[in-house]
């Protein structure tokens, strides 16, 4: 059976501001929380107002100055969509200002205009693993209800500015990540209690719903989605206890989708909060705000995991405490490779929500070798992505409504987890090393031409 992708399927790639832009204090930008986790999101927080230090993300791959070149390369591959994020601290350096930073707004105008020249549709994330650091220092991050208003003001500002340039929006990147790295997600220390973290998440969910309402009011033709870390868990065995453990594990991240797609807290969370003595401050206005639901579901997918009632089998993975699947191989960074998992996840989410889905992150981080002639033969990346896209095609044949696919990442960038450039994802090689050396020259990898042919054929070259 040949794979049939929809005629208007959006093909592209995904980036985040703090992993590509660099220029971390240029043109009025303020410090973000991402600027303060200089060794990656699992590292200790560095107050860079107090400590004079440098970080690989300060320059990253210098997209801030090289975006025309990079966007031209994306267009050469045939992109019809590019997911980027706006750095909140470029628009409001401290987060609580009344007036935005015009230089920050002007930068994204130029980026969107460059994309329009190449007929590339922007998909824009409002907060991708960063927020103004001053909101953490001054207000205590998302633990403070005041951040709902600050985020809403930020969202309204960029909606007004870019309403004629952007029609696909996302609120928070991998919003369920806050449960595992609360500083990255909600600006809270790791020592925070479950109650404090869930309260901060609640404020974020309310802010997300308010942004969705603003989008619907201000841009009726635009679409706004959420973004989940698709951390699907299988039972390790057929033991009923393991099946139930997997069910509970999946509830841990699906609840973010349930609230944003259905407009209220699911009953299983009521039980969870009761069992863990978690009491949240949820106002009647909050409940009204949450009723404004997203238009589509977006998610990242890199790997699946297993769940078991035996806690001794858990291992620390990239983001979660993982139980390895004995039937799967792993990447160089220990991420288990499961192409069928993306088909399973697409079906799971579509059956649950009956809303369009958008795969906004999927890719393979690996060490790439530059040959003597300058070529980069990344067949392992081609195989990984081919196998996953075949399963996306199968899900579409299953009847799942999939809007598009933006790979992570189309160009090498600084990895979020450990701030390495040597963990390369791109179809485009960037000459920069973990120690900051390199020319920043861009080079097309073998996968560049492979993805170009996939897009050109609308998936027909997949096998």
Automatic annotation (TrEMBL):
One GO biological process term is: carbohydrate catabolic process
Keyword Secreted on entry: no
- Establish whether keyword Hydrolase is in the entry: yes
Pfam family for this entry, one: Glyco_hydro_1
Report the superkingdom from the record.
Answer: Bacteria
Q: Give GO MF terms, alphabetically.
A: beta-glucosidase activity
Q: Which NCBIfam families match?
A: PRK09852.1 (NF007356)
From the Swiss-Prot or TrEMBL record, give the protein name.
Answer: 6-phospho-beta-glucosidase
Please name the source species: Orbus hercynius
């Amino acid at each position: 059976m040949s794979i049939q992708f929809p005629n208007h399927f959006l093909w592209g790639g995904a980036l985040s501001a703090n992993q590509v832009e660099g220029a971390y204090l240029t043109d009025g930008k303020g410090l973000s929380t991402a600027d303060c986790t200089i060794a990656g999101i699992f590292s200790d927080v560095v107050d860079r107002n107090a400590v004079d230090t440098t970080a690989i993300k300060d320059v990253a791959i210098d997209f801030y100055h090289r975006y025309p070149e990079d966007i031209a390369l994306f267009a050469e591959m045939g992109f019809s969509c590019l997911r980027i994020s706006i750095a909140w601290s470029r628009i409001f350096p401290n987060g609580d200002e009344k007036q935005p930073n015009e230089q920050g707004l002007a930068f994204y105008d130029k980026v969107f205009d460059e994309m329009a020249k190449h007929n590339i549709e922007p998909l824009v994330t409002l907060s991708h693993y960063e927020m103004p650091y001053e909101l953490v220092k001054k207000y205590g991050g998302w633990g403070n209800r005041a951040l709902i208003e600050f985020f809403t003001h930020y969202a309204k500002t960029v909606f007004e500015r870019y309403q004629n340039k952007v029609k696909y929006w996302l609120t928070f990147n991998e919003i369920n990540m806050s449960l595992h790295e609360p500083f990255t997600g909600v600006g809270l220390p790791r020592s925070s209690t479950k109650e404090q973290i869930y309260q901060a998440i609640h404020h974020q969910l309310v802010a997300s719903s308010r942004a969705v309402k603003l989008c619907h009011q201000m841009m009726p033709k635009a679409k706004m989605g959420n973004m989940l870390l698709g951390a699907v868990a299988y039972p390790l065995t057929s033991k009923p206890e393991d099946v139930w453990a997997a069910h509970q594990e999946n509830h841990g991240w699906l609840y973010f989708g349930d609230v944003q797609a259905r407009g209220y807290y699911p009953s299983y969370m009521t039980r969870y909060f009761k069992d863990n003595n978690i009491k949240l401050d949820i106002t009647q206005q909050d409940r009204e705000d949450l009723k404004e639901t997203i238009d589509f579901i977006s998610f990242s997918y890199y790997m699946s995991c297993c769940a078991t009632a035996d806690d001794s089998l858990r291992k620390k993975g990239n983001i979660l405490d993982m139980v390895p699947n004995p039937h799967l191989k792993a990447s160089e960074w220990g991420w288990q490779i499961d192409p069928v998992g993306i088909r399973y996840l697409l079906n799971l989410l579509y059956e649950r929500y009956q809303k369009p889905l958008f795969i906004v992150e999927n890719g393979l981080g690996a060490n790439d070798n530059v040959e003597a002639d300058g070529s980069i033969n990344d067949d392992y990346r081609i195989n990984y992505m081919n196998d996953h896209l075949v399963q996306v095609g199968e899900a579409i044949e299953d009847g799942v409504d999939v809007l598009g696919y933006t790979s992570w990442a189309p160009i090498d960038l600084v990895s979020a987890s450990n701030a390495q450039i040597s963990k390369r994802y791109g179809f485009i090689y960037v000459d920069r090393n973990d120690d900051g050396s390199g020319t920043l020259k861009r080079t097309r990898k073998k996968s560049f031409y492979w993805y170009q042919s996939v897009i050109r054929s609308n998936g027909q070259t997949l096998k």
